[in-house]
Amino acid sequence: EAQVTQNPRYLITVTGKKLTVTCSQNMNHEYMSWYRQDPGLGLRQIYYSMNVEVTDKGDVPEGYKVSRKEKRNFPLILESPSPNQTSLYFCASKGASSGNTIYFGEGSWLTVV
Amino acid sequence: AQSVSQHNHHVILSEAASLELGCNYSYGGTVNLFWYVQYPGQHLQLLLKYFSGDPLVKGIKGFEAEFIKSKFSFNLRKPSVQWSDTAEYFCAVNGSGGYNKLIFGAGTRLAVHP
Description:
Helices cover about 0% and strands about 50% of the residues of chain A. Chain A is mainly beta. Chain B is globular, with a radius of gyration of 14 Å.
């Protein structure tokens, strides 16, 4: 089954404690992306990756890092989380096998206190 | 700048009422258009998409959308809503070809009362 899998799904953490949200897809997609969803703002892109070792900033990259060492994985790293990063995060992927349709993970609820 | 505008942030309907959610976009080129739905506590699911061809697109669960190029619009419709349609709906657009960014509207929360 085609899947984008994120972990953890729910996390409460404290300001300044580094955390990583993992994302993995099993569709051999070239393109992967991270979004955050906030009330009234829709989904905003944080970072995206066109392929292995190719990453670029989206609209709201401040406070985040990513890496793409393998095609299937695209972790989102918060080096020093702050309360304004409390949000719902979605990983997404697309590739030749899915046309131009983006598949989303189930979301990760992150609360920074 | 590329943008997507959804006219209604909150919509409340009774069951069996008709639904139309507005979506307008600003993009200087050929576009692909999408509607996603997010049920409470769940991830985004694709309702329907338009790439080319017939501008009236039918999706899952009885939803349809019409692409009107001259109006830069892609409104979502359903003739008769059900309580189970209560969700948040997002319109999205990206440029055709390659891996252009998918830009989302702010979303419309739909509440359907029995």
